[in-house]
Amino acid sequence: MVDVDAVATELYGLRPEEFTAARDAHVAEARGAGERDAAKRIAALRKPTLAVWTANLLARADADQARRLLELGRELREAHRTLAGEDLRKLSHQQHVVITAMAAEARRLAGDAGQEVSEGVRREVEQILRTVLADPDAAETWARGVLAKAPPQVVGFAELAPVDVPGTAPRPKRRKAETEAEAENGTRATEEQAQARARAEADRTNREAELAEEALATAESERVQAGAALAALDEQVRDLQAQLDRTRQERDRLGAAAKEADRRHRQAARETKAARAAARKAGH
């Protein structure tokens, strides 16, 4: 039975230019084994971008480091929920240092694997790691080294609603000017977040368009291959039909020759019998 998860683990460990051929080979193998559902699921696996492959490479190279990043993400989310300002500042600084170092390490690993990574791709890897910190689902997938595409960007931890912590005193009321300034800053931050989300959505749409084009190219290649295979089979059918026609003609010829030989045999037998009778009669 085809293990689709194992196949995915294998494929996302390959360099991007090796991905498609290896995936198609697994699809053909699954179809040959009669496992159509597995073949369909494998065919749906999308080739990762260079940045996603580099991020996967990092997770695969050091599982302990990947787990530490996931733990940092959990601590950041918890600090935000509980409004632990000092913890949040410390963890945010740690986040910046860790992500910068990990992205540099990912770039080095890619170079060791024979794949040059540009500064732009390194920044994409940083963004993927930031999203991993904020998104538990993306974090688990990345930690297994099987990210198929860059997860949608998350702007900080704004989607995590703060909660009251038992035992903490309520915050004192602030002056109107402070409140208005905070409101203005919040509005500006919201606008910046909205712009960042719009850019992230545009990036996601562009990536999906690229994936759709790749899927179309793959489907076209499969269509051409299937058409060529069908044409070859039609040619074989025509050759076999012609061979069958020649065989039937030869059979008819041999059948007619056999009938003629049988007729001659019967005639020779009659003539022999008559000659023997005439000889016996002459002997008397």
What do you see in this structure?
Helices cover 79% and strands 0% of the residues. By secondary structure, it is mainly alpha-helical. It folds into 3 domains: 4-46, no CATH class; 48-163, no CATH class; 228-284.
What is the strand and helix layout of this fold?
Elements: H1 4-11, H2 16-32, H3 36-43, H4 50-61, H5 63-81, H6 85-112, H7 119-134, H8 136-143, H9 176-283
Labels describing this entry:
single chain, 284 residues, mainly alpha, 3 domains, 79% helix
* Helix count, DSSP H or I runs of 4 or more residues: 9
Q: What best-fitting shape do the alpha-carbon axes yield?
A: rod-shaped
Biggest pleated-sheet summary? none
Order of helices and strands: HHHHHHHHH
Give me the oligomer status.
single chain
Number of structurally distinct domains: 3
Helix content: over 70%
Distance between the termini: 92 Å
Low-confidence stretches: 158-174
Give the overall average pLDDT.
Answer: 79
Structural class by helix and strand composition: mainly alpha
Q: What is the β-strand count?
A: 0
Radius of gyration: 39 Å
Strand content: under 5%
In brief:
The protein is an all-alpha fold and 284 residues long. The protein has three domains: 4-46, no CATH class; 48-163, no CATH class; 228-284.
